């Protein structure tokens, strides 16, 4: 019996012969050069089934492209909230990622040896779907973790904490963390107790100072941080304001990290201007992005 949705045989196991000569694959001769239709592998059958079952949600997503962004966001949210649709979309994504995966392309040139799990991040996909308690991509998190491990208990400021996953990561790598959020979206403060419990669970609570304050209002001491991670705004004016306010707090040799969101260009524009403004003579940018993180080093006077 054939499943007319997938073109694959039902109830006969994945390697059963496909009887439908109308299908392009099945119209070809078998590998032995005879006229018998080719036998289809389990993987082909599963994929074909998935492609069929994905078609409906994918069409729905395509139709969304015609709608305003706020409506699209709401509808995509509804689609992802439906467990069956979400499962199909995620499974489709997984297959695509495996298909594209390639050691020759993915093996990093800037990692000389594997010192720990963080040097294996490139075996995995990095991007929005990996974000959860931490809003960092997997490659950004690995890079940041490694830089902190290399330093001796550095002092790090995270500007924009949200739920605090990155705060915990920084502490786990050995940093003393000032973790700041302004609570403006009405609720970030409520996440602090859960973060505290998680920090205590792993004995990291003494390394973290969670602060509720605006990035522009918090009083900073000069040369007090080895790293400052700006992750609270894609806004042009606020990015300039935060940089001007926090740059003096970076120690000579230390780093200010911009978390850039390419599709939200305000901060990208601000960084572009900074890079081309000679009056900021103590700022030296690393040439490459690490994920979406861009590192500006403070040149010692
Ligand atoms: C992208 S989230 C931070 C994600 C977090 N760094 C992580 O990696 O998981 C941005 C956060 O910045 C906070 N925020 C926005 N504007 C701010 C401001 N002016 N001062 C302080 N925090 C702000 C928001 O409340 C939000 O929680």
Can you walk me through this structure?
The structure is a single chain. With 301 residues, the protein is α/β, with parallel strands linked by helices. The protein has 2 domains: 42-100; 117-298, Vaccinia Virus protein VP39 (Rossmann fold), CATH 3.40.50.150. The protein is built from 9 helices and 7 strands; from the N terminus they run H-H-H-H-H-E-H-E-H-E-E-H-E-H-E-E. The chain has helices at 42-64, 69-81, 83-100, 103-106, 138-150, 165-172, 192-201, 236-246, 265-275, and strands at 155-159, 176-181, 208-212, 225-230, 250-259, 283-285, 293-298. It has a 7-stranded mixed beta sheet with strand order 3-2-1-4-5-7-6, sandwiched between helices. Strand 6 (283-285) and strand 7 (293-298) form a beta hairpin. Helix 1 (42-64) crosses helix 3 (83-100) and helix 5 runs parallel beside helix 6. The longest helix has 23 residues, at 42-64. The model is unreliable at 1-35 (pLDDT under 50). S-adenosylmethionine is lined by residues 134-136, 158, 160-162, 165-166, 180-182, 184-185, 188, 214-215, 231-233, 238.
